Amino acid sequence: MAAYVAIGGVVSFSGWVLDRPRLADWGATGVATQPNAALAALLAGSGLVAAALRRERVAWLAGGVVLAIGAATLCEHVYGVDLGIDTLFTFGRSWGARKTLAPGRMGPPGALCWTCVGLALLLPALGPRWRGARPVLGLLISGSRGSR
Questions:
Q1: Residue 93: what are its φ and ψ, rounded to 5°?
Q2: Model's pTM, two decimal places?
């Protein structure tokens, strides 16, 4: 399943790189997976694969980047600021912005989810006493309404 998530991230991000909206808009609704969410999926899936292969440092690094992507985007939403990071990987494309709050920016539910996923990947680095936090993060993620 982790590899599937990573592949999904690659496919969605490729849509932006290759200017093929259909690769990022899986439901053909005009709402594309934003590039930052696609990169988060790629890294989260890769981090989970690394964790399964006992490559903890790689998993933690991936988790840290996923956490940074999610948390930075969440801060943009909460504080109403534009850090200028959302359009870095849209490659000047104007498609995929339908129903987004800002072009290239995933929505608040997605930002919260990716923040929690990144945190979950980092928890093993904090020691066994944090093991109980994973189910709580899982509940936050599953209770969200989307990750685009």
A1: -75, 140
A2: 0.87
